[in-house]
Write a structure and sequence with these properties.
This protein is α/β, with parallel strands linked by helices. About 50% of the residues lie in helices and about 10% in strands. The strands form 2 sheets. The protein has a 9-stranded parallel beta sheet.
Length: about 525
């Protein structure tokens, strides 16, 4: 009997048991105002806004970037022409790591996984002909987030736009934890982050200064519970750092935003998003004393799970992405990127990018998903699962608090080990066929069902073209003015002045991204994990 019971037992990949049937007694004593509240009301479980998608659908923000700025600009215009409602920029690895395209470490990486941005000239090309007064832009950039934001604002000023709309990811803690595109040690990195909070509060009040990211934590192999708990723990660390820097909580917290993964277990993902809103509301109100409701509401972007895409039977990924996108919408996301079906093999083609965008448009226009807020509220299963995810996430947050917070937990590799163990368990389940991946470990066809597909390729001459452009830039600019501006940035880094003001001055004089980053490297050093 025990063996039969074990064989019939079902659990989410977070280890939460799923019962065969949920009944009213599973929600006995459930307090609607305390646990849910109406949409737009504390604790915001049902959504941050009263009308949710009935007022306006989520922002469809497809992630794009490759090659030169001009090539990516053409893709942006293609997506806008096909109905995309917001831009999302992917940068190449040299840009993310603060290296110009002519640096020896950039060899083989220029323009490969995103667009190459070396200077203000590239940024102007990237947004040429795109009205920044009308379009909000998300930039997936972390160690060099302040530089890319300032370049963007300089382009906007040229267009006559003073108060731009958009988001920089700017989440450096998860880089140490899960992704690896850090430059400086944690202390100086957190200083740059809080300097950006202060700068935007004064100069760019409509800009979301950070997108605290669970996405990459999940892509590294975490469970849904770990994604939620580690993301909120990192968010707590950012709030504490800003308070320590002298900022008032309601001065910067309204512009904090989040970025979550949408994975395959539809109901668990819906529950994760709902639990995230409820937990953040409690953290901000009860732990940090926030009184502005904008500080208490959790707003988030979602991207479907890149790690779930398979190279085998790649067209199956269209269905996977649709299920994941559905979870994000049912969970109340504010914006969404849907992956293209060919991304396990290459960057998206125009064809695959259009299918990914059309997936969102069909959900919004044909699926009846925008008619009512939080349609799964009151489900015995979904409410029980939301409670279970919240309880398990609080347990992790308490452990991290006891260790001294996220920075300490990252330094001690606690979160990294938890993610590694979860990733190992998941992979073993796949290899043992305990977890079915269609077309990979079940329903395979001997490799005969993968038709030849057109794949996107990046022009291998891009690095030489970028190098030539950099040489021309350095020949034609006022190098004395650049050197003076970089010296002022160095002085600010050695002191306590907000770094973004001298950074902007240097970038306006056509200092390159690499030159600005190297100036800070000279003061802060580079981080090398022990």
């Amino acid at each position: 009997m025990d063996t039969e019971k074990r064989q019939d037992e079902r659990r989410t990949e977070s280890g939460i048991e799923v019962k065969p049937l949920y009944k009213p007694e599973d929600l006995e004593g459930f307090d609607y105002p305390e646990r849910l509240g109406d949409p737009g009301e504390y604790p915001y479980t049902r959504g941050p806004y009263p009308s949710m998608y009935r007022g306006r659908p989520w922002t469809m923000r497809q992630y794009a970037g490759f090659g030169t700025a001009r090539e990516t600009n053409a893709r942006f215009k293609y997506l806008i022409d096909n109905g995309q409602t917001g831009l999302s920029v992917a940068f190449d690895l040299p840009t993310q790591m603060g290296r110009d395209s002519d640096h020896e470490l950039a060899l083989g990486e220029v323009g490969k996984v995103g667009v190459a941005i070396d200077s203000l000239l590239d940024m102007r090309d990237l947004f040429e002909g795109i009205p920044l007064r009308e379009v909000s832009t998300s930039m997936t950039i972390n160690a060099t987030a302040s530089i890319l934001l300032l370049l963007y604002s300089l382009v906007a000023e040229k267009q006559g736009v003073e108060n731009v709309m958009g988001t920089t990811q700017n989440d450096i803690l998860k880089e140490y934890l899960a992704r690896g595109t850090y430059i400086y040690p944690p202390g100086p990195s957190m200083r740059i982050t809080t300097d950006m909070f202060a700068y935007c509060a004064a100069e760019l009040p409509r800009w979301n200064t950070i997108s605290i990211s669970g996405y990459h934590i999940r892509e590294a192999g975490s469970t849904a519970v770990q994604e939620l708990a580690f993301t909120l723990s990192n968010a707590i660390a950012y709030v504490e750092a800003a308070l320590d820097a002298g900022l008032e909580v309601d001065e910067f917290a309204p512009r904090l935003s989040f970025f979550f993964n949408a994975h395959n277990d539809l109901f668990q993902e819906v529950a994760k998003y709902r639990a995230a809103r409820r937990m953040w509301a409690k953290i901000m109100r009860d732990r940090f004393g926030a009184s502005d409701e904008r500080s208490i509401k959790l707003r988030f972007h979602t991207q479907t799970a890149g790690s779930s895409l398979t190279a085998q039977q790649a067209e199956n990924n269209i269905v996977r992405t649709t299920v994941q996108a559905l979870s994000a919408v049912l969970g109340g996301t504010q914006s969404l990127h849907t992956n293209a079906f060919d991304e396990a093999l290459a960057l998206p083609t125009e064809h695959s990018a259009r299918i990914a965008l059309r997936t969102q448009q069909i959900l919004a226009s044909e699926g009846g998903l925008t008619d009512t807020a939080d349609p799964l509220a009151g489900s015995y299963y979904v409410e029980s699962l939301t409670d279970a995810l919240e309880e398990a996430s609080w347990a992790y947050i308490r452990r991290i608090d006891e260790m001294g917070g996220s920075v300490k937990a990252i330094e001690e590799r606690f979160m990294q080990r938890e993610i590694e163990d979860a990733a190992y368990r998941y992979q073993r389940e796949v290899e043992n066929e305990e977890r079915v991946i269609v077309g990979v470990n079940r329903y395979t066809s001997g490799g005969t069902d993968d038709p030849d597909m057109e794949l996107h390729t990046v022009d291998e001459t891009i690095r030489e073209r970028q190098k030539e452009r950099l040489a021309e830039l350095k020949e034609s600019r006022d190098n004395a003015a650049v050197e003076k501006a970089l010296a002022r940035l160095k002085d600010a880094a050695e002191g306590t002045e907000n770094l973004l003001y001298p950074m902007k001055e240097a970038l306006a004089e056509l200092a390159t991204l690499g030159e600005v980053s190297d100036t800070l490297r000279g003061v802060f050093g580079e981080y090398r994990p022990s």
